[in-house]
Design goal:
21% strand, globular, Rossmann fold
Length: 107
């Protein structure tokens, strides 16, 4: 599965998700792109956007999109807060569908 890691997440998260093909927004040259434009670019190459931005799902209509959103609910965007969520995130990715939002964690 091809995953795009949002710029609000640490780039080191990529190592924890290495069972999938991962790129960061920065690697793609899309840093600073607004959420709507980012989704339009991302859905051409990726199946899932991973973010911690809880407003993302409310600002964008994902129903008609070819990409899914995996929302990590953690106390911060620090790797030590995100790492415990990765096993649950990997399980959630098994059943994720385009246009859906899956929340992992409790924030």
């Amino acid at each position: 599965m091809k995953l795009l890691i949002d710029e609000c997440l640490p780039r080191a998260l990529k190592r924890l998700l290495a069972v999938h093909t991962c790129r960061t927004v920065q690697e793609m040259g899309w840093a600073g792109k607004k959420n709507g434009l980012l989704l339009s670019l991302a859905e051409k190459e990726f199946e899932v956007l991973i973010t911690i931005d809880q407003g993302f799902e409310y600002q964008q209509n994902l129903g008609d999109r070819k990409i899914a959103l995996l929302l990590l609910l953690a106390p911060s965007n620090q790797l030590e807060d995100l790492a415990p969520l990765i096993p649950y995130a990997l399980t959630a990715l098994d059943g994720i569908q385009p246009g859906s939002v899956i929340r992992v964690g409790s924030g």
